[in-house]
Specification:
By secondary structure, the chain is α+β, with helices and mostly antiparallel strands. It has two domains: 97 residues, Phosphorylase Kinase, domain 1 (2-Layer Sandwich), CATH 3.30.200; 205 residues, Aminoglycoside 3'-phosphotransferase, Chain: A, domain 2 (Alpha-Beta Complex). The protein has twelve helices and ten strands. The chain has a five-stranded antiparallel sheet with strand order 1-2-3-5-4, with helices on both faces. Strand 1 and strand 2 form a beta hairpin. The longest helix is centred in the C-terminal third of the chain and has 25 residues. The chain starts with 12 loop residues before the first helix and ends in a 6-residue tail after the last helix.
């Protein structure tokens, strides 16, 4: 059985350059690989249409699911960009399927910054990110749900399903090797004590896949962008709040909650469980594709989530009101 991140239609440099040259001649030129994810390949190019020098990221689906995710991005991101306190990518060029490649693809002006998994963040730098992360998620989760639905944001199929999260954790934990194997007993204990799924039906606008790789940081290690919005959806806030437990150490929580506001205990427990899922998934994926920085960030996420269990100190912080 293949891995869920294996490509159905991988895009190499020659194919990416040919597709851009065929459909956007004014933007044609050499491309370099910018990144590869579960659902998309990303290539970087330089162009000067009309004399303006620009850097473009070309996003090609690796599998059919990626097509659906890009369609949502194309519909939602232009309107969403006006509502958030940090930059997000907005598609400007829309490529069509062709005999050479069966899927549509998108081009974006690249946002500056380095992704969080490449930043080798120190504890102090992670602490410093907390207020900006809290403000960003507060703005995102406050977007009117009906407005978001009208833009084409779908419902989240995950729906805070903790048994499903437990199954995913167990599957990826079985692939964890190296120095993080000593954390597997704690992972199994967390699965055995998995929190219940949400039963309130609460929905907010979610990024849907918020972890270190999808944060852009500037030279001062401040958040300057949030990328990869293919999983944007309406659902349980625990999915996005998992970054409170994966990226941030426990000492950062008061600053995050001052900016974000109240997080009830049940949501926090689900968020921590999702953070464990991110940790083992990134460890398995990073090791399989040979991505050492991402593997290290997965290990850090797992350590943060396991070592920062909910306790009386956090329970106290969860009751903090939204700051004026």
């Amino acid at each position: 059985m293949g891995q869920p991140w294996e490509a159905e239609h991988p895009v190499n440099q020659a194919l990416a350059e040919a597709l851009v040259a065929e459909q956007f001649p004014a933007l044609a030129g050499p491309l370099t690989r910018l990144g590869q994810g579960w659902d998309n390949d990303m290539w970087r190019g330089e162009a000067a249409p009309g004399g303006e020098a620009i850097t473009i990221g070309w996003r090609f689906p690796r599998r059919k699911m990626g097509v659906e995710l890009l369609a949502v991005e194309a519909s939602v991101l232009p309107a969403l960009a006006r509502l958030l306190p940090v930059s997000i990518p907005t598609p400007e060029w829309r490529g069509a399927p062709s005999p050479a490649f069966p899927y549509p693809f998108l081009g974006y002006r690249l946002l500056p910054g380095v992704t969080g998994d490449r930043a080798a963040l120190t504890d102090a730098e992670r602490l410093a990110l907390a207020p900006a992360l809290g403000r960003f998620l507060r703005a995102l989760h406050d977007v009117d749900v009906e407005h978001a639905a009208a833009l084409g944001v779908p419902g989240d199929t995950f729906r805070g399903d903790m048994p499903l999260a437990a199954t995913i954790i167990q599957r990826h934990a079985a692939q964890v090797t190296g120095r993080w194997t000593d954390r597997l007993p704690a992972v199994r204990a967390a699965v055995a004590a998995a929190p219940p799924s949400d039963t309130t039906g609460r929905r907010v606008l979610l990024h849907g896949d918020l972890y270190a790789r999808h944060l852009l940081l500037d030279d001062e290690r401040a958040i300057c962008g949030v990328i990869d919005w293919g999983d944007v959806s309406l659902g349980d806030p625990c999915k996005d709040l998992s970054i409170l437990f994966s990226l941030l150490p426990a000492a950062a929580r008061p600053a995050f909650l001052d900016a974000y506001g109240v997080v009830d205990d049940a949501t926090a427990r689900r968020a921590r469980f999702i953070a464990i899922k991110y940790g083992v998934a990134l460890l398995a994926y990073g090791a399989d594709v040979g991505d050492l920085p991402l593997t290290a960030e997965g290990g850090r996420a797992l350590d943060n989530a396991l070592d920062n269990a909910l306790d009386s100190a956090l329970d106290s912080a969860l009751d903090r009101p939204i700051s004026d």
